[in-house]
Specification:
Layout: E1 8-14, E2 17-31, E3 36-42, E4 46-51, E5 54-58, H1 62-76, E6 82-87, H2 92-97, E7 105-110, H3 113-122, H4 124-127, E8 136-140, H5 143-149, E9 154-160, H6 176-184, E10 186-198, H7 205-215, E11 220-228, E12 233-241, H8 253-263, H9 273-279, H10 284-298
Parallel strand pairs: 6-7, 6-9, 7-8, 9-10
Antiparallel strand pairs: 1-2, 2-3, 3-4, 4-5, 10-12, 11-12
Helix pairs in contact: 7-10, 8-9
């Protein structure tokens, strides 16, 4: 007997590759002012957040994505006390930032108040009540407008945004203009980090474009990746800074572990010194693709 297709969520990785998740319950389904949102219960990955038909976070493996996004930049910085987060509505990026004992202030800006409210109610295992921390200022606004209007500077800026699909919600936050704006809001020795799309073989177009765009704005750009099973393969990230001394490859595994021990609370399941070293060692095919395309983006 064939399985009931209504009991499966089809996550389209590309037009030729679909990943299927068995659904045991649809916890929520609706549309906010900005996007279609679902919270589903799957048998393989637990509760999952779906935005506009794309899986964004799964209860089982979100720790890989969020630790990979946040901690390499936070640990590379000598002592981050002020952090800006763009996006990250489910609150898990915020959760990871707040693990750093040196943290004094976090500004999180998300355009979709309804989505954040739904995540606060239905996905407590992801945010773990991080929104209630007194160090957090939560603002519902377009991140581009907020950074353009503010004069505050941040040690780390984290862009936890949906992919830059044309006409999508985050498309204008992946441009040279936005990266220059973000660079102007970084403090001395500040670091920008972001998720940069899939870097699995045959799926590298967004990743290559994002990193080459960053290279047009920042003198130091460091690429890295992590395997996120619910995303269908290897996922790409990037760090950027004006300071050559903030090269994450300059940190030994022992130094990373020492900084984690001295600064972080709450424990980590994915990121440590060994993971740090391996994440920044990209496969040859990916390095070659980025080098080949570099001049197209920076002239």
């Amino acid at each position: 007997m064939s399985e009931d297709p209504r009991l499966w969520f089809y996550d389209t990785i590309n037009p030729h590759f679909v990943q299927m998740h068995r659904v045991s319950d649809i916890v929520y389904s609706g549309r906010t002012r900005f996007q279609q949102l679902q919270v589903i219960q799957t048998t393989s990955f637990g509760q999952c957040l779906i935005l506009d038909g794309k899986l964004q976070s799964s209860e089982k493996d979100e720790f890989i994505y969020h630790e990979a996004l946040v901690h390499p930049a936070m640990i590379t910085h000598p002592r981050p006390t002020k952090v800006f987060i763009a996006g990250g509505g489910e609150g898990a990026t915020l959760r990871e930032v707040l693990k750093d004992r040196s943290m004094e202030r976090v500004v999180m800006v998300d355009i979709d108040e309804e989505a954040v409210d739904i995540c606060r109610r239905l996905l407590p295992s992801l945010h773990q009540h991080s929104f209630d921390d007194k160090r957090v200022e939560l603002i519902y606004l377009d991140a581009r407008k907020y950074l353009a209007d503010c004069r505050e500077q941040f040690d780390v800026i984290i862009l936890d945004l949906t992919d830059p699909v044309e006409d999508g919600l985050s498309y204008l936050l992946y441009t040279q203009e936005f990266y220059r704006l973000a660079k102007g809001r970084l403090s001395a020795r500040g670091v920008l980090c972001l998720q940069a799309g899939s870097c699995s073989l045959g799926e590298t177009g967004i990743y290559v474009a994002v990193n080459n765009t960053l290279h047009c704005v920042f003198p130091l750009v460091s690429q890295y990746q992590a395997h996120v099973p619910s995303f269908g393969g290897e996922w790409g990230f990037a760090m950027a800074s004006e300071e050559q001394e903030l090269n994450p490859l300059s940190l030994s595994a022992e130094e990373v572990d020492s900084r984690i021990s001295a600064r972080l609370t709450g424990g980590l399941r994915f990121y440590d010194g060994v993971a740090h070293q391996s994440m920044f060692r990209l496969p040859r095919y990916l390095r070659q693709e980025m080098e080949a395309e570099h001049h197209r983006y920076c002239g």
